[in-house]
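Thread: Modeling a multi-component assembly for a lab meeting

Hi all, long-time lurker, first post. My supervisor asked me to bring a structural picture of a complex we are working on to next week's group meeting, and I have zero experience with this. I have the sequence lines for every component (872 residues in total). Could someone generate the structure of the whole assembly? Inputs are pasted exactly as I received them:
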Amino acid sequence: MTEQKKKDAVFTSQLQDNTETLDGILEFSTDLLRREFVIHADSNRHGICYLTDGLVSNTDIQLILKTLLLYGQAINGNWQQSLDSFEQIKQQLMVNCSIRTVTKLDDGINGILSGETLVLLDGYAEGLLITTKAWESRSITEPATDTVVRGPRDGFTENIRTNTSLVRKRIKDPQFRLEAMVVGNKTRTDINIAYMKGTVKDGLVEEVRQRLQKIDIDGVLESGYIEELIEDAPLSVFSTIASTERPDKVASALLEGRVAIFVDNTPFVLLLPTFFWQFFQASDDYYSRYWVGSFFRIVRYIAFLISLMLPSLYVMLVSFHQEMIPSMLAFTIASGREVVPFPVLVEAIMMELAFELMREAGLRMPKPVGQAVSIVGSLIIGQAAVQAGLVSPFMVIVVAVTGIASFAIPNYSASIAIRLLRFPLLIASGMLGLLGFAAVFFMVVIHALSIRSFGESYLAPAAPFRPSDQKDIVLRFPWWSIKRPPSFSKEQRRQGKNTMPKPSGGQSGGPERG
Amino acid sequence: MALIMNVMYAKAIGITQGIIGREVNSDMWLSTVLGILQGVAVAYIVAKLMQYAPEFSMVEMAGKLIGTWAGKGIAVLIFLFFLGTFATVMVTFVYHLMDYFLPEAPTILFVVAALMVGLYGAYHGLEVMSRMAFVGVFSMLTLNILVLFGSVREMDVRNILPVMDSGLVPTLWASRHFDTDWAFAVMLIALLLPHVKRSARLARVSAVSVGLAGISIVMWPIMESTVLSAEATSQYIVACMQLARSAHIGLFLHRYEMIMIAFFATSSLIQVMMCLFCASLSASKLLGLKDYRPMLLPTGAILGAFAYWIVADHMRAMEFTAHQWPLISLPIVLGLPLVIGILYLFFKDKLKANQTPS
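Re: Modeling a multi-component assembly
Sure thing. I ran the full set together rather than chain by chain. Output:
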């Protein structure tokens, strides 16, 4: 049977024909189970259940069989007269809460492979798909990325329904909408588009839906696939779609008028539109006092600048513009470099690559070994390299500070993007000094200015400048001062007027003394 | 607004001030002030003129008024204007970086680097360049604050006394050098009006932009005169770099001109981008193309070759910037709107009949 014919094939009223077709398609996979039964002894009506072992709940299967075998037998008189369609069986016999009838074979097969149980009865040109999904999954734990000092500890899991429920638990509003889609011709991965109706900008959900519908791929194994297939700037090093493992972050994004895309089998949920500055915002900025949140955000911006520019500036100054270094500092650097045989650019590239090597090795190794690799790499090799005169102590400091700064950026993909950009900037600075640095830096800025995320400028609200959105970019203003959501949201109001707390009634505050 | 401010800034704070200083000594700041007033007036008048047909640029307006070939003639003239402007912009960019930071690097390297960034920016269009210009305004302000902070203790007001020492007429005549800086902005207004969203406010916005740019520029001749003295300023091609060199914060940070040049580069590179964009736009009008992008590379090659020829020789560069360019650019920037204005008076019915831009 050709693929198209298989898709279009429908169930017939002959059970034997249906089982032969299904068996022909499914063949003999060991995890595919079939259970034959006789539902009504008087009319000798045969039936069969198809299910996938490991994806279904045994309790649910037993309930289905019990219903059909015990309650089915109890039906008096002519079976066909009592229950002449699957709709009636569904309404009058079955006790499971989620059941649907299907007429196409393809729908039945997809149901079986997704953890549903397909029930076929002789004499009915339909099938009953009963939801019996249950499989082993990881429990809700603290996210591995996006960790916080203060804030909720629950993180998404690989189960899409668990993930949506974690957000639903936070937003008990009927306007919170979830739309289901299936993407991937072979994996048939479940996808949910989440948004707040009335808050999300007109056309954004339609745009997301359209881009998802355009995806024509055999499989989607992680949300990274979706991210790459729907993003605005596919050639850019910058990520224009954010991902998170935190339900509170998704809930917050939805309240601001963003759209979230949940993908089954991954704890990473996509958020869009995304702005560059979002990558410097951590969840606990909003849970800590605003002074603290703002301070740490400024620290992260400094970390971003260090991470991007420090090695380039060092190489540029030492190679070309020594006169710009304050005298005492220049002497210190020169004394450290006295025995180093390499040009400073080569030294910097070597050290940066060594750092990336250690980072990658530490990440891939089992945790205890990974720590050992980091310690050996950073302390022993670094010290030995300096003592052997291969690198200068100042370069070790520069690379170490740059590495630490890159880890201070809360979002991993942003941190990686900055790490990638560091290399062309470094090479240009080392070869052309200030000219190279300026040329590459401005090209990066122009590129960042030119890209968009689902219709929104990537560098907004800084460029284009939106005065009303400045309360949550460089600084985190107090909650009582943020009166409305960001300007890309359709919602105009976030909280009422005069929400700044103050003591009730009294001028000096505190309870009155009797 | 940000674009107008940026295209005036980079050359006006250094190269122009050195040239003015050589003519009127300590009255260079007065000459700049007079230039600003002229710029505000011309920008307002040109923007007002363009508002009569806001859907057309100056080239399109000329085409509608007196025929396609006349429009093409205007396009050639505007292309030549940007060819010359690009050369002066490159004089500013190259000499800032080459003379003060990379004296041994070949000149062609600077021209090619500027062209690459400029073409990349121009390719992304006016929206991206406008956003970049916003960053440029921030850079201008930072640069001004930095230099003020590092120089304020060295300022000696006696260096600009007596005021109007050179006399009114020479001071006014010297302002022609600053006029070439706002000429770029005025030509921008004439070309880009159809791309502006709220064109009804253009005249006021244009005049205010030139005024604001002037305010951020005029502090440079004042500081250069009061810190370095007019005599010292006039000895340098890039006077502002000399001022930046003398600036220091405390004992440890005794030289920070590289930080300043990083901010200066934003404005300078926006000038490069805008020159390439406007020249490509006029070249596309000349050839009747709807998109300017196909003209970017040939335009870049022509502008780059001419600019390289100019900047390769310091004497030639300064001769062109100080003596020839004001006499070429000002007749174009003042004459074109005048001619278009007169033509509009006679043929305005014809223009109104043409609703869609060519």
